Amino acid sequence: MLTKPSLLLHLEGAVILFLSVCVYHQLHASWLLFAILFLAPDLFMLGYLANVRVGAALYNFAHTLVTPAILLAIAFFAARTQLFPLVLIWTAHIGIDRLLGFGLKYPTHLKDTHLQHV
Length: 118
Fold this sequence. Notes:
Number of strands: 0
Number of helices: 5
Number of domains: 1
Order of helices and strands: HHHHH
Radius of gyration: 15 Å
Distance between the termini: 14 Å
Shape: globular
Helix content: 55-70%
């Protein structure tokens, strides 16, 4: 198993999803908010309407853990606890994407992802 990067990346996505949902539950945050915003990161795919390069850049911005981690740091250091549920919804979305095999995009075409190169 440890020699199969593809399997590990899917497992990693499952863990991210599971932990995000568990912590979200512990916050007693709104599940309605979760349902409404869960697919919001996919709105960044609208960048593909401009061209593939813009689409890939915007999609990757919204689908890498770095971006919600920055929001988490802002929430923590600015004492904006209302941002914590947004971070967890975002990371849960990224987790399910990885679990289902959706990876970060290359600027060649929509279906060319980093998971296909593993």
